[in-house]
Amino acid sequence: MALSVKIENLSYSYEPGKPVLKSVSIEVAPGECVGIIGPSGSGKSTLLMHLNGVLRGDGTVRIGDLLVNEKSIAEVRRVTGVVFQDPDDQLFNPTVEEDVAFGPLNFGLTPEVVRARVGEALKAMNLEGFETMTSHHLSFGERKRVALATVLAMRPEVIAFDEPFSNLDPAMVQQLTGLIRGMEATLVVVSQSILPLLVCCDRIAILKDGEVVAVAPPREIARNSDLLRSCGLDISFYRDICIDYL
Amino acid sequence: MKHDFIDKYGTLSSPLHRLDPRVKIVCLFLAIVVIASEPLTSAIVPFLLYLVVVVSLTLISGVPFRYVIVRLLVASPFIVVAALFFSFTLYLTGGDGGPGSPETFIMPGVVIFSRAVLSVWLLILLTSTERFRRLLEGMRGLRLPPAVTTISALLYRYLFIIYDEVLRTTRARESRTPGRLRINRFRVYGNQLALIFIRSWDRSHTVYRSMLSRGFKGDFPGMQRLEAGWNDLVFAPLFLSVMIIIRIRAWERLI
C-alpha cells in the first residue's frame, strides 16, 4: 500500500546563515509520482535526504502517519527507499546479491525471505544471473539498475529518486521512465532533466534557491516558458533542435 | 574501477578455502600463538619445520607464492627493523652469554624475525583463502565484540572508496601530464594526497547515508549460515597437533 508524503515548512542549512531549503512545503498523495526540478544547488537532493531522515531540518516531514523523527526512524526507513544519484555511493558490497540483500537483512528478515526478495528485485530490473557479479565491474546503466534493485528489495511504500536519468543513454532513460510509471509506490523524482519527468510524473514542483516556486501538472509546467527560463530550466533549446533536425 | 585487490583469491575452491571461516580463524590464530611462544633462545630447526607447514598450506590453498611474497615484502621493513632493534639492544646491554657474544644478540633477532614472518604469512593465508565478508561472519560467529566486526567491515568498505579516489585523481593527473612532470613533484603529489582524503571523506559520508537509508544500525547481518563440516573436524586437530608437536619438540622426547 502506497503512503502519502507531507512536507511542511522544512528549512535546512549545512552552514549557519546559508539556508539550502527555505520553508519548503509539498504534499504527495498515495501512489502519486511527483517530480522535483531545479537548477544545480537549488536544494533538490537535500530535500530528498529528509524523506527517510538521513538529514533532519526544521519543519515536519510525514510519511503516511509517521512523523519523521528519532523515534520513528527505523520504521520510516523501512517504508521509504532512496535511490542515490551515483550508484557507486549505493553499492558497497562485494557482490550484487549482497548489495541487494543489505536492506532486507538490516530489517531482520530471515535469509530465506531475503533470498526470495533479492531474486524478485533482480528479476524486476532484468538482472537475473548477476547475483555473484561484482557491482563495480558492471556498466553504469547496470549499476543504476542494481541500485534500484537494492531499494526494490526493501519493498518500500515511498521511493525517492535522486537524479535517476543522469548519465544514461536515451534507451536507458526510456526504460527507466517505463519502470517508474509502472511502480505502485508513491514516488518522488528529483531531476535536472525535465523531459523524462514530463513523461512519468503526475505533478512537477520547481525548486529555486531552496524555495518551491511552482507545483503543477507536467503540461502546465512545460508550457510556462517564462517560469522555466527564470529558473534556468528552459527547454525551448531542445524543442528547436527537434524541429530543425527531426 | 579495479576492486579485487582484497578478495582476489578468496573465491578459489581449495580444501583450505572450503573450511568454515570460524575454524580457520581459530586455527591460524592458535598457530600464531604457538609460533610466538617459541623462546628467544630457540634453534632455527623448529622454525624451518613451521615454514614447511606454512608453505604446504600455501601450496594446498592455490594462492600464488608471488602474491604472498609481495605482501610479506610490504610488511618486511617493520619486521626487519624490529628484529635489528632487538638484536642491537641486546648487543649493547649484553646477555647471559656475556657482552658482545654473537649468540646473545644474533639468534634472538633471527627468532623475532622468524616469528613475525611466519605469523604475517599465516594472516596472509587467512585473508586470501576467504572472502572478507565470510571472515566477518566468522568473527561474528565466534562472538567477537560487535565493535570489532563493525570497524573491520567499515574499514573494508572505506578502503575501496580511498582506492577509487586514488585511481580517479591519478587518471586526472596523468591525462594532463605528457611525458614527465615539469612542476614540483612534492607539490603535485601533496595536493593529490590532500584531495584524495577530502574526496574520500565526502564520499564516505554519502555512502554512510546510503547505508543509513537502508536501515544500517551498526551491524552487518549475513545471509549465509556457517556450518562446520567433516573437513573442519579433520583439519583443526591435525593442523594444531602438527604445530604443537613442533613446539614441544616431540621427536626429541621420543629419541
Protein model, in words:
The complex is a heterodimer of chains A (246) and B (255). Chain A is of the alpha/beta class and 246 residues long. Chain A has one domain: P-loop containing nucleotide triphosphate hydrolases (Rossmann fold). Chain A is built from 11 helices and 10 strands. Chain A has helices at residues 44-49, 73-79, 87-90, 96-106, 111-124, 140-152, 170-182, 194-200, 218-223, 225-230, 236-245; strands at 5-15, 18-28, 33-37, 58-63, 66-67, 80-83, 158-162, 186-191, 203-208, 211-216. Chain A has a 6-stranded mixed sheet with strand order 6-7-8-3-9-10. The longest helix of chain A is centred in the middle third of the chain and has 14 residues, at 111-124. Chain A starts with a strand and ends with a helix. With 255 residues, chain B is mainly alpha-helical. Chain B has 2 domains: 21-138 and 227-254, no CATH class; 145-213, no CATH class. Chain B has helices at 21-36, 45-61, 65-93, 102-128, 132-141, 146-175, 185-213, 230-247, 250-254. The longest helix of chain B has 30 residues, at 146-175. The radius of gyration of chain B is 23 Å and the shape is globular. Chain B starts with 20 loop residues before the first helix and ends with a helix. The interface between A and B is medium-sized, with 35 and 28 residues.
Q: Sum up the overall morphology of chain B in one term.
A: globular
Task: Give the N-to-C terminal Cα separation of chain A.
Answer: 42 Å
Q: Which strand order does the major sheet of chain A show?
A: 6-7-8-3-9-10
Portion of residues in helices of chain A? 25-40%
Number of helices of chain B: 9
Gross CATH architecture of chain A: 3-Layer(aba) Sandwich
For the record, the count of structural domains of chain B works out to 2
Name of the level-1 CATH class of chain A: Alpha Beta
Count of discrete structural domains of chain A: 1
Mean pLDDT of chain A: 90
The rounded Rg of chain B comes to 23 Å
Percent strand of chain B equals: under 5%
Q: Helix/strand-derived class of chain B?
A: mainly alpha
Give me the secondary-structure category of chain A: alpha/beta
* Percentage of residues in helical conformation of chain B: over 70%
Largest sheet of chain B: none
| First-residue to last-residue Cα separation of chain B | 59 Å
List low-confidence stretches of chain A: none
What would you give as the CATH superfamily of chain A? P-loop containing nucleotide triphosphate hydrolases
